[in-house]
């Protein structure tokens, strides 16, 4: 089995990365790498956008950015989501997420 590295790509004004979300967890935390994505458990149910809201709040805190700098650009209703963050380059994102 080949080792697939988590990938953060450059975006127009920042970086983009894929997350796989596991809603309904006891606490919100990064589980680790999941192929080319990062797996995150969130302590919110997958209803009415609550898990997405918790995910964005968590990432804003971890990345030390305003929530407005984050956007779910694909997969809003899926477990697999593409996240865009403005104001940080891929190296900064990787460092702050401790990957």
Quick description:
By secondary structure, this protein is of the alpha+beta class. The protein is 21% helix and 36% strand.
Average pLDDT reading: 88
C-alpha end-to-end distance: 21 Å
Structural class: alpha+beta
The CATH homology group name: YggU-like
- Helical percent range? 10-25%
Enter the CATH topology name: Conserved Hypothetical Protein Mth637, Chain: A
Q: Spans with pLDDT under 50 lasting ≥5 residues?
A: 1-5
Spatial shape: globular
Radius of gyration: 13 Å
Number of DSSP strands?
A: 6
- Please indicate the count of domains: 1
**Number of H- or I-type helical stretches:** 2
Q: Could you spell the SSE succession in H and E letters?
A: EEEEHEEH
Q: What is the CATH architecture descriptor?
A: 2-Layer Sandwich
Strand content: 35-45%
What's the main sheet like? 6 strands, mixed
CATH class, please? Alpha Beta
What does this structure look like?
This protein has 99 residues and is α+β, with helices and mostly antiparallel strands. The chain has one domain (8-96): Conserved Hypothetical Protein Mth637, Chain: A, CATH 3.30.1200. Helix content is 21%, strand content 36%. It has two helices and six strands; from the N terminus they run E-E-E-E-H-E-E-H. The protein has helices spanning 50-63, 90-96; strands at residues 8-11, 14-22, 29-34, 37-41, 70-74, 80-86. Strands 1, 2, 3, 4, 5 and 6 form a six-stranded mixed sheet that branches.
